[in-house]
TrEMBL record:
PANTHER family: CITRATE SYNTHASE. It catalyses: oxaloacetate + acetyl-CoA + H2O = citrate + CoA + H(+). This is Citrate synthase. The gene is gltA. GO terms for biological process: tricarboxylic acid cycle. Gene3D superfamilies: 2.20.28.60, Citrate Synthase, domain 1, Cytochrome P450-Terp, domain 2. Keywords: Acyltransferase, Transferase, Tricarboxylic acid cycle.
Amino acid sequence: NAGVFTYDPGFTSTAACDSTITFIDGNKGELLHRGYPIDQLAGKSHYLEVCYLLLYGELPTAAQLEDFEHRVTHHTMLHEQMVNFFRGFRRDAHPMAIMVGVVGAMSAFYHDSTDINDPWQREVASIRLIAKMPTIAAWAFKYHIGQPFVYPRNDLDYASNFLRMCFSVPAEEYEVNPVLSRAMDRIFTLHADHEQNASTSTVRLASSSGANPFACIAAGIACLWGPAHGGANQACLEMLREIGTPDKIPEYIARAKDKNDPFRLMGFGHRVYKNFDPRATVMKQSADEVLELLGVENNPILATAKELEKQALADPYFSEKKLFPNVDFYSGIILEAMGFPTSMFTPIFALSRTVGWISQWKEQLGDPQMKIGRPRQLYLGETERDYTDIEDR
Ligand code: SDX
């Protein structure tokens, strides 16, 4: 753009896409899934019903929901041979590394039977991924902590099954706590889809080449792992722990405002929201409920988070730049109170977002006009020049 090349303003980036799944109004802080506000879905619906809505565009009838839940429930087991993939990792491998590897490996078990041009086989791959992701995430956790794998059960709902696979041990029966299951299910719902975020765009770009759905979802998991994206929930809790007590908050706010300091307030700010992230509002309410239920409502981390939010929102730097808490600000507090280590926060985000990735994957493949993605660049490099022999350099 230095006048050396004429920049063609007419070209349209192939990264843009049409979609009917999720709408975000960043200025109003609005998030709609197929037209339904997220706070209504989080309060009145449940994750598998939201999965149905995202996949098929309408809320299901009772019969449709029963059939969908039956299909998901009966695909939660992994091919037993896949256990070997977990065992190939070091015990201290981050569960996200295991999830990227194991989901990618699903290509070797299920891809051969997945003709992505056949809508029915796209449907089967979608159900398999939604059904098996909790088992993969739970087994990544169990492997990480050196405990035996717990197999899914068909008599439990989606969230209870996941919690049991994570926290049950052979030595004693695991009592499902319906309030914790509800809180877990709500966290799944709040993370289900979010328009063209970095990991969803990664899945769309990968699938535009015709790559199989398991490889595309593995690419989405890899992208989500970054601390600027889905890794922020882990980074946020680690930041709150580092801050420790509310008296240290001004020091960290000053650092976040210092352009020479790479420190950012984790769980704050967003590429799209220039108002409250509506998911953060629901998550904050859920944090109060879960911590009170667990008798840890006086959790110092929650107190620090609330004071940090209050001081940051009162600071002109954050208000002028329209920086508000996002979905990752409170989620880690709930997950830690439920017994998860910080390394499991992003795997739970990935588990939840699988339905968003796969819904957008299906939507893109269903478009007969789809072309391979090819984001454009603005070239700012050298103009043409001749090769110089090494002795002349
Ligand atoms: C997710 O896209 C999605 O939808 C993602 C997601 C989803 O559901 O898929 O919502 C999930 O990824 C949520 C975001 C999680 N990440 C974090 O919480 C990490 C901390 N946040 C920042 O890294 C940052 O806010 C980003 C990465 C999220 C956005 O960065 P941008 O695009 O730079 O934000 P911006 O353009 O609005 O920033 C405006 C200004 C900039 O300063 P100036 O260049 O104008 O001087 O605010 C600054 C930024 O440097 N800024 C921050 C800040 N976030 C932005 N300053 C301090 N602390 C922060 N957290």
